[in-house]
Specification:
single chain, about 350 residues, 2 domains, 8-stranded mixed beta sheet, 12 helices, about 35% helix
Length: about 350
């Protein structure tokens, strides 16, 4: 019934995964997680045919059911993906929709004592779960990962950290070049902490969770900084270490270095062999991205070029960070074509 819904030509199955990796996580977040698996049109007609797979991961604050949200006059990404394959505009693939949400907003798809073991969850639990239940081509050369923003960050770093599993990546405005996308916000956070919360993050979280989220200016900066610190610079006991002095915004070099070690741009040289073996790398971002992730996209492309990776789909297009879901089918088609060979 358009425009409220569009009849899917493929099928989406909804599952719940009981995760060992997420049990006992520091935030007390659920260890039972939803995962959706979309099979392309015709999947049920040939019981012998196997398919590549693409795993879709979400941006900060995203949770799985948000993929079904609709912008005015637009289809959402699951509908766009289904339509892509129904029209025959891309080789058919199995699309896996993964939930790595945390009560801080996200996980960056890493294992961290501050959030939980989300890299392990994705790679060692979700991938086998799907491969055991669906007719995937269960090897790295036919498996890709795609995301935007924090999901774009995950799409860059997860294949570097687990090269045994991933042969293709697509990043839309992914977090990269941390001095341009994160560092400028630290001074904003320091002021808000001083003026509203007496310098206390505990006071911020108490206030934030007592009212509608993001109903005050500065919420986004404070949440983002703390969440990233929980992912990038938490101590083994789960203590979150911020990379700046909350009273002044002054950098704390030894903690900032822990963040930089997880910057996709800086990770490239150490993972050169893996990246040179990838079958598909897609990078894009809007030229007016509010977080300057277009600069990070260019820096990541240049880092790849420096290690000899030039077969990359790269584009900076006229848009901001928001409402770019119309770009996702482009990278999905690119991954489907590259991973189907």
């Amino acid at each position: 019934m358009e425009p409220w819904s569009f009849e899917a030509k493929g099928r989406t199955d909804e599952h719940i995964v009981d995760s060992r990796a997420l049990r006992g996580n520091a935030l007390g977040d659920p260890h039972q997680r939803p995962v959706w698996v979309s099979t392309p049109p015709g999947y049920d007609d040939d019981a012998e045919r196997r398919y590549p797979s693409v795993y879709v991961i979400q941006g900060l604050t995203g949770q799985l059911d948000a993929w079904r949200n609709r912008s005015p006059f637009r289809r959402n990404f699951p509908e766009l993906a289904d339509d892509l394959f129904a029209r025959g505009d891309a080789p058919p693939v199995i699309v896996v929709w993964v939930d790595c949400w945390t009560s801080l907003g996200g996980s960056q798809f890493l294992d961290s004592p501050g959030t939980g073991n989300y890299l392990t969850y994705l790679c060692d639990e979700i991938v086998p779960f799907v491969d055991e239940r669906y007719r995937t081509i269960a090897d790295r050369d036919h498996r890709g990962i795609q995301g935007k923003s924090s999901g774009g960050y995950g799409a860059m770093v997860v294949p570097m950290l687990r090269p045994d599993l991933w042969g293709g990546l697509a990043t839309h405005a992914g977090d990269a070049l941390f001095e341009t996308c994160y560092l400028p916000e630290f001074r904003e956070s320091a002021r808000v902490l001083r003026d509203r919360y007496e310098g206390s993050y505990d006071a911020f979280w108490k206030d934030f969770r007592s009212r509608p989220a993001f109903s005050k200016d500065g919420d986004e900066h404070l949440l983002n900084d703390w969440c990233m610190a929980a992912c990038y610079s938490a101590d083994p006991d789960g203590t979150v270490r911020l990379p700046f002095d909350t009273a002044t915004g002054e950098m704390i070099p030894e903690i900032w270095e822990r963040w930089l070690a997880l910057d996709p741009v800086r990770m490239v040289p150490a993972h050169a062999e893996t990246l040179r073996s990838m079958r598909a790398i897609y990078i894009d971002a809007g030229k007016k991205d509010e977080y300057f992730l277009d600069l990070g996209a260019e820096a990541f492309r240049r880092a790849l070029e420096a290690i000899g990776v030039t077969d990359v789909s790269f584009e900076l297009f006229d848009a901001t960070h928001m409402a770019i879901e119309y770009r996702y089918p482009l990278s999905l088609r690119y991954l489907a074509e590259r991973l189907s060979g």
